[in-house]
Design goal:
It is built from 6 helices and no strands. The chain is mainly α. It has one domain. This is RiboL-PSP-HEPN domain-containing protein.
Amino acid sequence: MEVVIRNAVTTALKNQGVSNTKMKSANDEAGLSILLNMLVPLILKKMEVKKYKVYLDRLDALRTVRNKIMHENLPEKSIDLEAVKNGVNAAIEITLLLERKTGKGAISTVL
């Protein structure tokens, strides 16, 4: 999902005339949280942000679960499977949205 979001943000920045050097610098520094919670909403219309807010929130919750597993050694029995399922479904919805917005095959780029 991070690759899909980075590709969409990069495309949007290119369309705004941001140089490759500045984009590379920003890409090196921006984590998924910043991409998801700050940059994705900037490339969406206000109506889209409202419509997809639940998906953005669920995807952010999935990011949090992933971070707890990786950085805090969250035990398997403590993983909220419903949050994971909702997050994966949200990732699909956001991927499809970003694909429509950028006109690119974001899914095939990752696969």
